[in-house]
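Box 3.1 A note on notation
Throughout this textbook, protein chains are presented in two layers. The first layer is the amino acid sequence; the second is a token string describing backbone geometry. Keep the layers aligned when reading.
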Amino acid sequence: MSEAIMAKALNDTLSVKRTIKHFDFSEPYWEGTKTKKLVLQRCKVTKKFQHFPRPVSIFTGRRRDIEWAEVSGKGKVYSYTVTERGTPAFRGMEPYAVVSVTLDVGVNFVADIVNCTVEELKVGMAVKPYWHPLDDGTHLLMFQPDKDVK
């Protein structure tokens, strides 16, 4: 990573206006975010989690095999990118970071990371949820460093 990027603080993108389309089969996920709870789909047959929400289990292909379960949202950074040129909605917010996090339940989740510097951001870093409020009463899951984990 270049010294110029290392010297810059990361922006948090919290001021970016977001409108998110909700699908019927994802409503339990969005309802959970209203109270800052992360609920994910789990296959009743395999007991494995899946994310993003889908109308059927990715393990059996059947709708009836889906249930919803609350999880902590904690995990570890699997990968990340520092964005120097964002899409139109994010222009002027650069640099900011997007992380792929492997949650403790085994699924990957891609989101912004906040309250973090370039120097702190590392693969394997422990993270926890940061809930950003949206205008419709739901919250958008982002991540922040979990400083309680050594």
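Residues 40 and 95 are 30 Å apart (CA to CA). The chain has one domain: 3-11+25-145.
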